[in-house]
Amino acid sequence: MGEWEGPGDPDARRKTETLTQVLMASWTLCVVLVLATVAGAVGETRYEKFLRQHVDHPRTLGLMGHRYCQVMLARRQVTASGRPCKPSNTFVHAPAEDLVATCRNPADAMGIHSTSSPMGITACRLRGGDTRPPCNYRARQLQHHVRVACLDGWPVHLAGTHASPDEA
Is 157 a catalytic residue? Predict the structure, then answer.
């Protein structure tokens, strides 16, 4: 009694079938989760990521100074729990169409396009040298030209900003 009686034992067969079903369900769940993660990452174009990380037009009201950076970087998922803080990020307070139009401006030797006129921006810089959360940022509101890298006529990377030559 209680000993395994071989392949014909109904209890052993039932336990094996149950274990097989549990393993298959677990494997299926893992595959579904991996596919959902990949689909989510693929679902956002580079242009959409650029907009999410860098364009806030019109500027979100009610957030002043460093609070703007803390909230916007978290809200836009530029910073995420468990990941290092991003050293800097710039939000442009101009219509996305203006940045798309910048891609039609002549590019410099590095292939970077610059806006024709200055735009309102908020430059967020990490305070101190620690990149571990919580992330604390310093905010500066400026009027700068915005430099972007473009792909197929769409801005996909904010390459920096600069003051107008007459302001430098």
Answer: yes
Please state the φ and ψ torsions of residue 120, each to the nearest 5 degrees: -70, 130
Q: Is 54 a catalytic residue?
A: yes
Q: Which residue has the higher pLDDT, 133 or 51?
A: 51
Catalytic residue, chosen from 54, 113, 144, 145, is: 54
Closest CA to 86 of 130, 28, 120: 130
Tell me, what DSSP letter sits at residue 83? S
Give the whole-angstrom CA distance, residue 104 versus residue 107.
8
Cis omega before residue 106 (within 30°)? no
Note the pLDDT tens digit of each residue in 27-86. 434 443 334 444 445 699 999 999 999 999 999 999 988 899 999 999 999 987 778 999
Residues recorded for the chain: 168
Give me the catalytic one of 57, 66, 93, 157: 157
**CA distance linking residue 81 with residue 67, whole number of Å:** 17
**Interior angle at CA 74, CA 83 and CA 159, nearest 5:** 80
Nearest one of 119, 132, 127 to 161, comparing CA atoms: 119
The encoded tokens of residue 152 equal 């197929």
